[in-house]
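quick q for whoever's on today - can somebody do inverse folding on this one?? i tried earlier but teh output was garbage lol. tokens:
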């Protein structure tokens, strides 16, 4: 696998770490919200129960998406350490810098 000498890996590492901190904070907040919903004793009728189920389903889906995003960031940070960051996992070509700026955890080039 190739190494990218045209990238400042420290810049992308800082971007990824900042994104990681935000996502971890969002995950913690969401988990607290889910726990508050689950322990809510003010459920009085079927309508309240339905609202609770809808909110819980939405929160669980959002939590899953955030955890997936966190995994992608961790994978990108690992690629930086392995010196293979910015190389397409499918084609071994360089991922354009513009794509990495827009999506620092990108694994592949975009085919059009």
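ok took a stab at it. sequence:
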């Amino acid at each position: 696998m190739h190494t990218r000498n045209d990238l400042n890996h420290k810049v992308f590492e800082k971007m990824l770490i900042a994104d990681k901190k935000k996502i971890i904070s969002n995950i913690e907040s969401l988990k607290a919200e889910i726990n508050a919903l689950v322990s809510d004793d003010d459920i009085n009728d079927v309508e309240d129960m339905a609202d609770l189920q809808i909110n819980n389903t939405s929160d669980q889906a959002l939590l899953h998406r955030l955890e997936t995003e966190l995994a992608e960031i961790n994978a990108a940070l690992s690629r930086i350490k392995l010196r293979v960051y910015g190389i397409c996992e499918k084609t071994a070509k360089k991922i354009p810098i513009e794509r990495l700026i827009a999506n620092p955890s990108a694994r592949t080039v975009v085919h059009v």
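fwiw The helical segments are 9-38, 46-81, 97-102. also The chain has a mean pLDDT of 87. so keep that in mind when u check it
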